[in-house]
Amino acid sequence: MKTLFTALAEELSAGRGAVVATVVASRGSTPRGPGAQMLVRADGSALGTVGGGAVELEAARLARDLCREGRSMTKTYRLTNTQAGDLGMVCGGEADILFQYVAPAGLPQIQKILRALEDRTEPRWLVTAFALDSWRWGLCDGAGSCLDLGGIPGERLLPLLGKRPVLGEGDPALFVQLLAPAGTVYLFGAGHVGLALVHLLALAEFPVVVYDQRPAPPDGIPEAVRVVQGPYEDALSRLEAIGPEDYVVIMTPGHQGDYEILRQVLRTPARYIGCIGSRRKIAATRERLLADGFSEADFARVHAPIGLDIGGETPQEIALSVAAQLVACRAGKPTRREDRP
After folding, report:
1. Between 20 and 30 A from 80 (CA), which of 149, 176, 209, 323?
2. How many helices (H) and strands (E) does the chain have?
C-alpha cells in the first residue's frame, strides 16, 4: 500500500490526477479479494493489481477514461462467460471495484496517509466512504475516531476495524482497510540470511530496524528504517522500548550473541521472538538461559528452529521461511511448526 500511495503522491505533485481502483467486495471465486488495489496514471500506466486477466484489462481501460474525465464510480465485474457483458472468465464470481479519481488538490491528504503508514506506534485504518460517484477518505484509530469523516458515528466504524479489509453496507458505504499494523521487526545480526530477510520484509511492508556488532555493508542497508551498530550486551539500551506489537529476529554469528539478545528480549512483551541456529545451538542456549533463572515458559516464547518448515537451505530460502512466519504471525495464523497442518 505504501508503494501505491507514494506513486500517487508523485503524480499529484507533478500536477496530474490519477485513479485508484480498489476491490471493495467479491462474491464467489475471484482472482483477488477485497483490498486489492491498482493505481492508474493519466498516461495509462498502472501499478498494482486488482486480479489480472480480463478484469484487470477492463478495469485499467475504465480507470484511464475516468482519469481523463475526472470522474469516480463503482462497477461490478462478472467473472463468467454465460451472459452478455461477462468477461469470459471461468472463475464464476463477481467483483465490485471502486474507482476513485484523485485530483492534484488531494496531495495533502495523501501525504497524511503516507505519514500514517510510516507511524507504527498504533494501528490505523483507512476508511473510504462512498456513494454513487462520490467518495471521501478518513483515517480512523482503534477507538473508532475518524475526524475526517464527520457525521459517521464511532459505533458504526468500530465493528469494521479488523485485520481484513471489509465493506460496511449503508449510506454511505464504508470500506475499511488496516493501513499500518503496529509493530516493528528488530533484526539482530545482518549476515547473509539477515540481509536477505530485510529485503523480503520490506516487500511485505514490515519496518525493520537492524542491530549488529559488525559494521554495516559498504552500501548500507537501504531497505531498513534504521541501522544501529553496537555491542550485543546492552543492545536494548540503545533502542527504543520493544512493545507488544513488535517482532524480534535473532541472527547473531554465535552462541554468545544469541544469549545476550535473548537475555534482554525475553524481558520484553514482544509478540514474536525467533532465533536462528541448529538444534544443538538452540539447546545450548536454552540450557544457559534456564541456568540463569529463566523458565521453560520464557523459552517457550522463542520460535526455534526459526521459520516455517519449507525445506529451504540457502540464505534466501531460510529468509523466505522466516518472512512467511512473520506474515503468519501478523495475520494471526499458526506460526509454530508443530501447530501447522
Report:
1. 176
2. 9, 15
The continuous run of DSSP H or E covering 137 comes out as strand 134-140
Neighbours of 233 (CB within 10 A): 13
Residue given cell 475499511 in the structure block:
176
Strand order in the sheet with 134-140: 134-140, 125-131, 173-178, 166-168
Q: Using alpha carbons only, how large is the chain's radius of gyration in Å?
A: 23
Q: Which segments of the chain does DSSP mark as H helices, in order?
A: 2-13, 53-69, 107-118, 154-157, 192-203, 255-265, 279-291, 296-300, 315-330
φ/ψ of 140, rounded to 5, equals -125, 140
pLDDT tens digits for 61-102?
999 999 999 999 999 998 765 543 444 444 568 899 999 999
Question: How far, in Å, CA of 119 to CA of 334, rounded?
Answer: 26
Left if phi > 0, otherwise alpha if psi is -120 to 50, otherwise beta: which for 264? alpha
Mean pLDDT of the chain: 90
- Between CA 326 and CA 177 the distance in angstroms is 20
Tell me the pTM.
Answer: 0.73
